[in-house]
Write a structure and sequence with these properties.
213 residues, two-stranded antiparallel ribbon, 2 strands, Phosphatidate cytidylyltransferase, membrane, transmembrane helix, Dgk1-like
Length: 213
C-alpha cells in the first residue's frame, strides 16, 4: 500500500510510539494487579489477545482497504516497515502471555515492567546518543541504558517485598546484564518478545540460584 504520509523508521526516536509502548505494558501490569485475576487465566487472556491481533494483522495485510483504515487510524505510532508488514503488537502480547504462563507471577510482572521501560530507554538512548556500534544497529550506549533501567526496576521492585540485601543487588545486577545481552542479540527476533520472555527465563534461573522468591 502506498501512502503520502511519511512514517518514521526504526532509526528515529518516535517519542509517541515509545510512550504508547510504556503505557501499554504498564497498563497490562495495572490490570493484573487491580483485577486480582489468577495468573494462569490472565496468561490465557493475553495469549488470546495476541492471537486476535495476529488475525487482524493477517486480514489487514490481505485486504488493502482494511489496511488503509488501519494505517490511517494508527499512523501516529506506526513505523515505515509496518505499513505493509506486521507490527510488534502480537509478539509484545505473546511474550507477556508466555511469561505469565511459564513463570511465577512476580517474575512475569517484573519481565513486563522491564519490557515496558527498558526497551524504549535502550532505543531512545541508542538512537539519540549511540556512538559505538556493537552489533548491526545496536550500540553500547543503548545496551548500557537497557542495563541501568533494568537494574533500577528490579532493585526497586525487590525492595518492595524484601529488605535491602546483597542478594537483591546481585539479582538486579545480573538481570540487568542478561536483559542488555538479550536486547543486544535481538536483531533477528523482535525484542517486543525477547525482552519479556527471555528476561523472565533469565530471572527464573537467577531465582533458583539465589533463592529469592
Amino acid at each position: 500500500m502506498e501512502s503520502i504520509y511519511r512514517f518514521p523508521s526504526k532509526f528515529e526516536p518516535h517519542i509517541l510510539r515509545k510512550l504508547v509502548h510504556i503505557i501499554s505494558g504498564l497498563g497490562i501490569v495495572l490490570i493484573y494487579l487491580l483485577t486480582n485475576i489468577d495468573s494462569l487465566l490472565f496468561s490465557y487472556i493475553v495469549l488470546g489477545a495476541s492471537a486476535l491481533f495476529t488475525l487482524i494483522e493477517i486480514l489487514r495485510l490481505k485486504f488493502d482497504g482494511l489496511n488503509q483504515v488501519f494505517v490511517n487510524a494508527c499512523r501516529s505510532v506506526l513505523r515505515d516497515s509496518e505499513v505493509n508488514g506486521f507490527t510488534g503488537t502480537p509478539l509484545f502480547l505473546l511474550g507477556i502471555g508466555l511469561s505469565f504462563l511459564a513463570f511465577d507471577e512476580q517474575i512475569a510482572l517484573l519481565a513486563t515492567i522491564i519490557l515496558s521501560l527498558a526497551d524504549p530507554a535502550s532505543s531512545f538512548v541508542g538512537i539519540r546518543y549511540g556512538k559505538r556500534k556493537v552489533l548491526e544497529d545496536r550500540t553500547f550506549e543503548g545496551s548500557y541504558a537497557c542495563f541501568i533501567m533494568t537494574f533500577l526496576v528490579v532493585a526497586t521492585y525487590g525492595m518492595l517485598y524484601f529488605p535491602l540485601s546483597l542478594k537483591i543487588v546481585i539479582f538486579a545486577f545480573f538481570t540487568g546484564v542478561a536483559t542488555a545481552i538479550i536486547e543486544l542479540l535481538s536483531t533477528k527476533i523482535d525484542d517486543n518478545f525477547t525482552l519479556s520472555f527471555f528476561t523472565a527465563s533469565a530471572m527464573a534461573l537467577l531465582n533458583i540460584l539465589l533463592v529469592l522468591v
